[in-house]
Amino acid sequence: MTETRTSVLAEPVVLPCGATLPNRLAKAGMSEQLATRDGRPTPELNRLYATWGRGGAGLLVTGNVMIDRAALVEPRNIILDDERALPQIRAWSDAGRAAGSAVWMQINHPGRVATVPFTRRPVGPYASREPVPGFNFRKPRELTGADIESLIRRYVRTAELAIAGGFDGVQIHAAHGYLLAQFLSPLANTRGDRYGRDAAGRRRLLLEVVAAVRAALGPHVPISVKLNSKDFQRGGLDESESLDVAVALADAGIDVLEISGGNYAAPAMTGVHHRSREAYFLDYGTRVRRLISTPLMLTGGLRSRDTMERIVHEGAVDIIGMARPMAIVPDYPARILAGEPEPQLPTGPLHLGYRPADGYIQLAAHAAQLHRIGAGLSPLDGAGLGALARSLGRLSLAALTQATVPR
Fold first, then answer.
1. Residue 242, SS3?
2. Rounded distance, CA 64 to CA 175, Å?
């Protein structure tokens, strides 16, 4: 990772736990769907991360790694719930770290948005279905107190296995409508016990997971949390309550707070709520910075060097997260650090007028890119990706139309 241009982005970041990231650019999590049928890493996944590892980012955050093989977000997710996969996990971490990047494993549980038919009976904070027409989500079973205790142990076990498998740190996913985000949401979490009832109850599970993982990993292993600025959904987590969660996480001693936003019903993280601007969640990040000193990672819509340098120089955030740009140009960070012109990317998301479908199209099109890189092929350029997105859009529109036909 050599830079030919002096930039604030090239500076290392020293985390509260004492670990150091080599620069301020990070690959944020994207779901790869490149596991074997039983959830183990594949040579294609290793090739993808070796490519990204050579791409200049100081930090690589993986996509969803599931803590329970009975609860998947998508088919071919990585699953890490016992030691059998550790040899493949070590090969994966070695591939990402070979060029000097730190590699953190993102650990997750989907809760009520678990994929059908791979999850027979999803669970959630309450027995209410995700309200997104066109998505085949089953009604979940409400988690009991004993279930929650078991769930915390699963987060801890996966975190321990990640470090045993050579990963430098872990990120606990509490955004995008997954289980911990469901507990944070007043819309999804209507429990009447200590894990619901009010704002303090809604954030209790996340804080207990963080505390348990910290106790298991010790004080010197980086622990990050990915948090929604808000859910962009009426009745969901709002910015005021999210700020309170951020303060509580800082008090709990996390090392990096990654800022994002949205969920399946309102996929703000894909850009469908922000059509004409960079840094989707910067306003929230600026407000968080006034309240906490914990290192902040901002992901969503960041494309230009000038914007990245400005917000880091001003102290709004410490780390710049990039996801979809690195699905099209895997060495995007290296080009930014070298002072080269920013690569040309598609100008904006495809819009069918139904935001959940728009978000799905963006995610599916970029997932196809990851599969190309994993197969040793070059990613499609902006025009090719646009054609792929339009094709997926036609398929999605047809599916939605058929789904609304009275039966």
1. helix
2. 12
